[in-house]
């Protein structure tokens, strides 16, 4: 993938970090990472982070949750460059490794990881059954998938939802909760939980817009330009109505490999 094809070039990284925090490219920052992990102990464990982005999550997994070693995986150079810089600055290169991989099978042997984590990244992978087959393959017996993703409420996408997705300009492969459950069950996962975060993000998205329209946006405009800030405000304003209808449904996912 060339730089011109990157979905998260440096300007987009800077914009999203202004809204969501240094190293974070999805909502909620460290607090939402902690909610995904609630009830699970990462201390000393080997963790794969699918779609690690700019590295903030991997730092949190080690610094806040005691993961033994985190392997961050992504497909784009700009986000990995940002993540490497943050990991280096934190002095955690011995506990966080960052890997670029092409879309497709995960480049790891069977039974490598105790936990596979992902935060709002597997939305870019349309074939959930194939993804969960790979997750099951690289997990150790008894290992967990712990993730957050952007789901759709129904298989039929409304014109309003289609307009929002088009405005994002990203390769979203969104699935329903039922399709995720089918993918888990087809690949032998147990202890499956699927927990909507729609109510939280309906309110949070409005707070994000307010920040972009205020001081946060003004500071971001110094880096990315006022037109780019305005463009992102417009995207958020298309997103809020489909959050309100429940068609756009951020969701926490957990499942165990027996």
Account of the 3D structure:
With 258 residues, this protein is an alpha/beta fold. It has one domain: Rossmann fold. It has ten helices and seven strands. The chain has a seven-stranded mixed β-sheet, sandwiched between helices. The chain is globular, with a radius of gyration of 18 Å.
Give a brief outline of the structure.
The chain is of the alpha/beta class. 46% of the residues lie in helices and 21% in strands.
CATH architecture: 3-Layer(aba) Sandwich
- Helix/strand order: HHEHEHEEHEHHEHHHE
Q: Any idea what the CATH superfamily is called?
A: Vaccinia Virus protein VP39
- Uncertain residue segments: none
Largest sheet: 7 strands, mixed
From the N-terminal CA to the C-terminal CA, the straight-line distance is 36 Å
- How much is the radius of gyration in Å? 18 Å
Q: What share of residues are in beta strands?
A: 15-25%
What does the average pLDDT come to? 95
Oligomer classification: single chain
CATH third-level topology: Rossmann fold
Domain module count:
1
Structural class of the secondary structure composition? alpha/beta
Q: How are the strands of the biggest sheet laid out side by side?
A: 3-2-1-4-5-7-6
In DSSP terms (H or I, runs of 4 or more residues), the helix count works out at: 10
CATH structural class:
Alpha Beta
The percentage helix is 40-55%
Question: Globular, elongated, flat, extended or rod-shaped: what is the shape?
Answer: globular
């Amino acid at each position: 993938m060339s730089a011109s094809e990157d979905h998260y070039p440096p300007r987009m990284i800077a914009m999203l970090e202004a809204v969501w925090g240094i190293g974070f490219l999805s909502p909620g920052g460290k607090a939402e990472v902690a909610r995904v992990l609630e009830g699970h102990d990462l201390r000393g464990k080997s963790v794969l982070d699918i779609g690690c982005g700019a590295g903030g999550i991997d730092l949190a997994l080690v610094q806040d949750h005691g993961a033994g070693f985190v392997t961050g995986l992504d497909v784009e150079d700009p986000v990995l460059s940002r993540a490497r810089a943050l990991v280096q600055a934190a002095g955690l290169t011995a506990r966080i490794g960052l890997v670029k991989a092409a879309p497709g099978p995960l480049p790891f042997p069977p039974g490598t990881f105790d936990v596979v984590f992902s935060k709002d990244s597997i939305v870019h992978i349309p074939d959930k059954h194939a993804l969960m087959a790979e997750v099951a393959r690289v997990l150790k017996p008894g290992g967990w998938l712990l993730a957050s993703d952007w789901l759709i409420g129904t298989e039929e996408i409304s014109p309003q939802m289609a307009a929002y997705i088009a405005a994002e300009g990203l390769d979203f492969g969104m699935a329903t909760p039922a399709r995720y459950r089918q993918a888990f069950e087809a690949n032998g996962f147990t202890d499956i939980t699927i927990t909507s975060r729609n109510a939280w993000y309906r309110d949070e998205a409005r707070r994000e817009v307010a920040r972009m329209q205020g001081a946060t946006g003004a500071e971001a405009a110094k880096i990315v330009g006022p037109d780019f800030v305005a463009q992102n405000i417009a995207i958020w304003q298309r997103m809020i109505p489909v959050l309100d209808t429940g068609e756009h449904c951020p969701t926490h996912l957990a499942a165990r490999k027996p």
